[in-house]
Structures are given as structure tokens and as C-alpha cells.
From TrEMBL, chains A, B:
Protein's recorded name: Ribosomal RNA small subunit methyltransferase E
Enzyme Commission identifier(s): 2.1.1.193
GO cellular component, as recorded: cytoplasm
Residues in Ribosomal RNA small subunit methyltransferase E methyltransferase domain copies: 72-242
Record key words, sorted: Cytoplasm, Methyltransferase, rRNA processing, S-adenosyl-L-methionine, Transferase
């Protein structure tokens, strides 16, 4: 069944009102009719099966039939802070990271990022990125849409990280030692609902100064398996491992 | 240090001879000089640090200095059998799947594959795919290059699967039940060195007939977390989970 995220103002007691791109998608792309069923997600994470009752050029109205009891969200809230990678790799991370359950994304300017963003460029990108995560959430049947937070410089990222009780960073140098710090021991220590921020370097990794600053701010270096992963593969490994740990292995 | 896979015929007792694209890469792309060091991988998985001793237009000669003791390979041999997906998604699976440790890949024609391949097209694609996995192996410091096996139809895939003692398939319907079969219990039962084949459906998943045939041939359905993953994300989740299970959690 097709799924749509409906913002707060679209919800009434027993009805949902859908406008904008989603109205167009239901009417023109899916060519649905009154009587057809869809799943509507509310902002706080709940979802309901709804039946389309009226299709107009301005909105689509649907009646709420049944609230669903779903558990599609990772039991811990994972934020991926990603040093700006080249070309469209960040879009891949946003799409796949959403499928894999990330709670939010923070793009940041890393010392070795080839791409440089200014404020104007960052704002323009942000609305595109929010569209990608919304669509990926619908596709993967998530019950909440991840946040894509405004672009930060490295110092602002360090300040922002103070909101998170658990902080890790993928650090290639850890993969070269036998005495690496275990991702599994960090995951095993997490409580349900806890927030964790994972910092991923751009191509070429962190500068030595960045790695030192991350450690000084309480980020623990982790390795993500013994192979060297590309920058865009690292967050996918991490999120899949977190899902496996909590949702499949149930450690 | 840059890493190159050198085929059997390039190895002599204390020397390596590199030709073709890799010769070009060392000479013209990396602009290396005699005296520079590289890592050369032999086909059976061993790797050595070598020093360039001679650069000609036909070959590059390098002296073997030291054999490395490396453990970069997953402790189990994972084959990803992927129902042909659309556009360049298979290339993404090959590149990322190689980084994540797959031992081999088998593309197959699934009932719901939009793309149809004939023998000629499959042969043309194969050499491109082999190049992708070779480059990804070098990038991720793997010690063996995964196989990309010739394209199969579904019946040939079923026959081929008899070579594998453990067989699983990602099945969306399993994700909808509470009584799903656990990936973790299958992984926990694997012995080091054992071969496992994982079958991934194309966009739209398997036909009912395919799912039944897979079960009848001993494939166990598994879910890959509670969210619905795109076809190209499923093998990455699976490989990352296998790496986490054996290489990080060390179950």
C-alpha cells in the first residue's frame, strides 16, 4: 500500500487532507480513485490506513480507518555527521541511510572535503536533501522522516555533539591496529531511545587535528570491519550493523 | 600504499612484473619512480610489499621485499546472487559488495527483472563488472578479488545453488510476520570457511513461484531488519551484518 507523510496541519479528528506533491502523486502518478486505500504517517511517528473520499485539484481527502501498531524505527537514535564528500555521494548516503534507519543527518565541512559550500549553496541543497529522505522514508515504510540538519563547520559540529551522550567516529587508523576499540562494546552499552552521533570523514579521511579534536570532545574511534570502506559506504555499514545488533541479533 | 592485483604469470621467485592497465596506472597516473613501494597481491590471497626496480613502456618490474600477514577477508565465503536490477544498480552492488567482503556475485534473470539480457549483452557486461570488482578490491585493501560469475537464468541458479551448504534469500514477506526466521541464528550456525549463497530479488521482489522454488531448493527466507530495503541496499545490509557478526562482535 502506498505511504505518504502528511504534515501536522493535514490531520483532523477522523480525516486527513493531502496537498502539494503528494496530492499530485496520488491523483496523476498513481491514478487512484475514491475508495482506494493509502497509509498516512503523522509527524510523531504513528500511521493509519485511510480510504480516499474526495479528489480535487487542491487536495485529497481520506478517512482514517485504522491506526497501525508499527515498529519500523531503530531502537536507538542515530545521527550521521558526514564530512562533505564529492559529487552526489551525500545523496546516496541520505537515501540509503534513511532506508537503514538513521534518525538525522548533519553535513559538515571537513578539512579534506574537496567540495566547499557557502551558506547560499547549503540552503539550496537542503531542500533537495529533505525531499530525498522523505521519499526514501515512504519507500522503506518508515514511520518518521529523518531530519537533514543545516550544514555546519567543524567547530560548530563539535559544539553540536555535546547534545549526544554517545559519540563515535569511523577512523581508518583504528582498522590498522590489533588493539582497536570495539563497535560492538559501544553498541552493547546503549540504552533504548539513546542518542548516538557517528562522524564519518570525507574522501582522504580526517586531518590529524580533526581526529585529535574529536577524541578531545569525547568521540570514540571505531573500526567498521578490517577492510577500507569508501566514505559513502561507512555510514551504511554502521547503520546496518546497528540494525542487525538491535533488531535481528537482539543483543 | 597503492595496491595492485598481479595475475599468476606476473610472479617470479623474488620479482613481480606488472603490465597492462596497472602498468599505465603506476607510470602515468601515480607517476611513480624506481625506488617507490607498492603492495602486490597474488591470486591465492597473499600480498607483498614490493619496490619498483624498472619502469618500461611494456612492463614495470618490482622486487618483493616482504610478505604480509593480513586478515582482510570475511571468515565465511558469501556469494550474492542478484536478480537483475534496473540501470546501474548492479554496479553499485558490485563495488560496495566488494568493499564489504563478498566472495562472488552471480547476476540472474528474475521473473520481475525489467532488464532482459541475452548472452551477448551478458558477456559484454561481464568484463566491465570484473574491472569494477578488481578496482574496489584494491581500494578496500582486499587480498582476493571476488568472482563475477556468468549470468544465469533462474533454473540454472537453482542448480548452481546445490554447491552451497547454506542458502538464504531476502524475502520481504518475512519482514511482515512476527515469526520471521532469524538471520542471526543462521549466521551463528556457520563454520569458518563455509560457503553461503544469498539470493536477492529485483525491484518488485520475487514472483510467488520463485519464492516457492527457492524454499523447495533449501533456501531459507530471512528478513534484513524491519524496514523495506531497495534491491541494491539489501546485499549491503547483509554483508555489513555478516562482517559485524564475525569480525566485530566475534559471535
Amino acid at each position: 500500500m502506498q505511504r505518504y507523510f502528511v504534515p501536522e496541519e493535514g490531520w483532523q479528528e477522523s480525516m486527513v487532507r493531502i496537498t502539494g506533491d503528494d496530492r499530485h502523486h496520488i491523483d496523476r502518478v498513481m491514478r487512484m480513485q475514491t475508495g482506494d486505500s493509502i497509509i498516512c504517517n503523522a509527524p510523531e511517528g504513528r500511521a493509519a490506513i485511510c480510504t480516499i473520499s474526495n479528489i480535487t485539484d487542491q487536495y485529497i481527502a481520506a478517512t482514517i480507518n485504522e491506526w497501525l501498531d508499527e515498529s519500523k524505527e531503530l531502537p536507538v537514535e542515530v545521527t550521521i555527521a558526514h564530512g562533505l564528500p564529492k559529487s552526489d555521494k551525500l545523496e546516496l548516503v541520505l537515501q540509503k541511510g534513511t532506508e537503514l534507519g538513521a534518525a538525522s543527518f548533519i553535513p559538515f565541512q571537513a578539512g579534506r572535503s574537496i567540495v566547499k559550500w557557502d551558506k547560499k549553496k547549503a540552503e539550496k541543497k537542503l531542500s533537495r536533501y529533505q525531499k530525498i529522505v522523505k521519499e526514501a522514508s515512504e519507500q522503506s515504510h518508515r514511520t518518521v522522516v529523518p531530519e537533514v540538519e543545516p550544514f555546519l563547520d567543524f567547530d560548530a559540529l563539535l559544539r553540536k555533539s555535546e547534545d549526544y551522550p554517545v559519540k563515535i567516529f569511523a577512523y581508518e587508523d583504528e582498522a590498522k591496529t590489533k588493539d582497536f576499540h570495539g563497535l560492538s562494546s559501544i553498541l552493547s552499552g546503549l540504552e533504548p531511545g539513546q542518542k548516538i552521533i557517528a562522524c564519518i570523514g570525507p574522501e582522504g579521511g580526517y586531518t590529524i587535528e580533526e581526529a585529535e579534536a574529536l577524541k578531545a570532545h569525547g568521540f570514540e574511534p571505531v573500526r567498521l570491519g578490517p577492510r577500507i570502506l569508501r566514505t559513502e559506504t561507512a555510514p551504511l555499514y554502521l547503520l546496518a550493523s546497528i540494525s542487525y545488533h538491535f533488531e535481528e541479533l537482539r543483543c
